[in-house]
Structures are given as C-alpha cells and as structure tokens.
Amino acid sequence: MEELRRLAESTRAHAGASPTQTPDQPSVPEDRQPTSNIMVVDDQPANLKLLEDLLTQQGHAVRSFPRGRLALDAAARNLPDLILLDINMPEMNGFEVCERLKADEKLAPIPVLFLSALNETNDKLNAFRSGGVDYITKPFQLEEVRARVETHLQLHRARQVERELLEKTLNGAVKALSDLAHLTSPTLTQRSGALRGIVVHMAAQLRLPDPWQYELAAILCLIGCITVPSDAFEHAYVGDKASAEELQMYRAHPDVAFRLLSQIPRLEDVAEMIRLQQVETSNWGKSAIGEQGSRMLKTAQELDRRTLRGIPFQTACDQLRAAPAKYPSALLDSLKGYSPLRVHFEVKRLPAPQLLPGMILETDVVTADGSLTVISKGTTLTVTLVERVQNFARTRGVREPIQVRAPQVSYADDLQRV
After folding, report:
1. According to the model, what pLDDT value does residue 408 have?
2. Tens digit of pLDDT for each residue in 18-36?
3. What residues pair up with 112 in beta bridges, in sequence order?
4. pTM score, whole prediction
5. How many Cα atoms sit within 13 Å of 23 on the Cβ side?
6. Quick count: other Cβ atoms within 10 Å of Cβ 253?
7. Using CA atoms, how far apart are residues 299 and 307, in angstroms rounded to an integer?
8. Cβ distance 378 to 178 under 8 Å?
9. Per-residue CA distances from 315 to 58, 206, 298, 335 (Å)
C-alpha cells in the first residue's frame, strides 16, 4: 500500500494534477480537451488516485468509483469509452459488474480492462468469460497501463468508425435500390414512406437496439412488389377489390424481396424481417430480431391499409387490439399519440428545373416526341427522380409544363433531408 501511495504522489507531482474530482465532474487537463472518457472502478483509494493521475496526464477525462453499483449507474447516464475494473470489491465483484454491463445493449460495446493482484489462470479466464477484453496485474507497471489503455481505445474507436461507415454505406445503397424500384411502381413510394414513419416511431419508443435495421426493413418491405402490376398491388394492398390471382401475386412478394436482399452483407436480419412479414408468429417479446421486425411490419401495414380506407389512425390501433396474437399490444402502445403526416397539396404546372422532391406527378412525364415515358403518373418525386427528369429535359427534351401536386415547402425540405 505504501508503494502505491508513493507512485500516486510521484505521478501527481509530475502531472501537476489537481485534487480528485467528483464522479460527476471527471478529472481533465486544464489546457486541452480530453481525448477519451475513461471510468476507473476500484475499492482502494490509492489505486483510484494513481490511475486517475496517470490517465489525466495522458489527456483523458477520468471518473473514479469505489463500488461497482455506482459505476453501473454512472455509465448508464454517461457512456465511457473504456472501463478499468477491479475484480475484488465488496458488494459486487468485477466479474458481476462486467456481466451486468454486457447484458445491457447500450453498455455492452464498452471495452473492459480488468485490474487485479490475482494472477491465477482461472481468474484470467473468468475475466474474459464475463466480457473483459484485457487483464492488468497489480502492482501496476505504469507504461503497461498506458500502452494497454491506448491500444484498446484505438480499437474501440476503429470499431465505432467502421460501424458508422457501414451503416451509412448500407443506407445509401438501399436508398438507391429503393429509388430504382419505385420507378417501376409509383405507389410504392407513398406506401413505403407511410410504413417507414410508423416503424421508426415504434423502434424509437421501444428503444430497440440498431433501429436502422427496422427502418431499412420498412423502406424495403414492399420492394418485392416490383413483380406485381401496379393495379394488382393497389387492389391487394388495400384488400377491397383484389381478385384471387392478384392476391396470389401479392402474397409472393416477401420471398422475392428476401432473395434480393439476403445476399447483401449485414442485411440478413432485415431480409428475414421482410420474409416473415406475412407469417403468423406469437410471443413477440421473446422472439428473434427477424420475427420482432416482421411483427412491426405486419402491424404497420395493417394500420396503413385501414387509414387508406378512411379510418382514423388511433381508431385503427384500437381495432387491432382485438387480435393481440397478430398485433402485439406493446407495438400498439408505442404508437399512442402518433398520427401519420398530413400534407396539403396544390396543383401546379412547372418546368422541369422547378421540380422538387415530395411533389407527386399528376400526369406521365414523357419525352418531347412522346416516344418514351420517363416517369409514370402518380410517382412521388425523390432527389434521384428529379435528376432523371431534368437530365431528360436537357438531352432529349420533355413535354412541359409538368403537372404536379406540390406539398408545403417545409414538407418538401424534410423529404430532401431523409
């Protein structure tokens, strides 16, 4: 213990550190921004002070805690980038703390480095089994602590960057795929937009992990309908005029979409949600992610169908409560207070350069000589589709003015940001 006190005093003197900060006010260097937010958990004050001084000297913000339960509460409020965690502590040992961290979807990605005077193989194995990424033995070698902290911070940052890049890349690729599909069936744009709004709201209210997957599933859940004639899709989707043949074609669309999407890396769960959207499942809360997503899609689609028939949205929710096996109560409860976006339109006749995303074509856009339909009547314009019309206008010419239904400007601006 005396050696630890001496090391702490030496490190603090070298760093010019200020007195220990409170847990809600992490210790940081006064002359620079912290590079990372690190949490240290140890029941020995000398250990806490030693590590706090060392890490602060490296430029990190540090929060120190003598008990695991306090650290768990603080981590949930303000996510650290890395945790240094002692094993032998009263009330809750380090293994238990780490297991609690890894059981929480929000806290699970945080790397945990164990600290202990124990050097038995079983202790190291237990550290890794509970979710730790590394193990530092006491008494500390300061250079070893510095090196291991920096290594795992760099790995953590790299994983975060890769995750963000992959999600942005996937979203961009899927949006392009969606735009191309909607060229063949204008009504898909409107229905996909309505479903996206409902599912995004559900995922946010339920605080589901990886909400981007549910959003992509909603955007793409009808993409298989590109194989269904437009009239047949409209009849089957609303469900009031469809023939047996139209219903058969419509019911095949989830498998078409699954074949399109299942080969794309990291979209396996999204593809499974879409494949199962017409399959009856139960016990929503304990289902796999594919089944959970499929229930969200099924519920959103049934609500959208009913609102298309003129039923108020919340009334439609109340109607679905009569069938909790098909439409889980948790999903319907998450939609309390939600209402689909209501947009007022006015008919305009515009030249191609004045078209904006969010406008709906009142007539077909055709080339100047009438030989080719560029985009069909009823299509909701996206950024990609506006560019298509304008490119044709510059090269082959299109018949202008083009008659559209134009939403309010604020709504069009929102669409451009999506």
Report:
1. 65
2. 334 444 555 544 555 667 8
3. 83
4. 0.57
5. 19
6. 23
7. 12
8. no
9. 59, 21, 17, 12
Q: What is the DSSP string of 337-380?
A: T--PPP---EEEEE-GGG--TT-EESS-EEBTTSS-EEE-TTPB
DSSP, collapsed to helix, strand or coil, labels residue 209 as coil
What are the helix (H) ranges across 309-337? 313-320, 329-334
Can you give the pLDDT at residue 273? 94
Residue type, 364: D
In the chain, how many H helices and how many E strands? Answer: 17, 10
With 60 as the cut, is the pLDDT of residue 363 above it?
yes
Structural domains present in the chain: 2-159 (3.40.50.2300), 185-342 (1.10.3210.10), 343-418 (no CATH)
When pLDDT is cut at 50, 70 and 90, the band that residue 295 belongs to is very high
Beta partners for 348?
404
- Which DSSP category does 120 fall into? -
Percent of the chain with pLDDT over 90: 35
If pLDDT is split at 50, 70 and 90, which confidence band does 178 have? low
Contact 179, 382 (CB under 8 A): yes
3-state secondary structure of 39: strand
Task: Map residue 363 onto helix, strand or coil.
Answer: coil
The owner of tokens 């502590």 is 89
pLDDT tens for each residue of 34-81: 678 899 999 888 888 989 988 988 889 999 999 999 999 999 899 999
DSSP assignments along 43-106, one per residue: S-HHHHHHHHHHHHHTT-EEEEESSHHHHHHHHHHS--SEEEEESS-SSS-HHHHHHHHHHSTT
Indicate left, alpha or beta for 141 from its phi (over 0: left) and psi (-120 to 50: alpha): beta
User: What is the rounded CA–CA span in Å between residue 219 and residue 271?
Assistant: 12
Question: How far apart, in whole angstroms, are the C-alpha atoms of residue 250 and residue 413?
Answer: 33
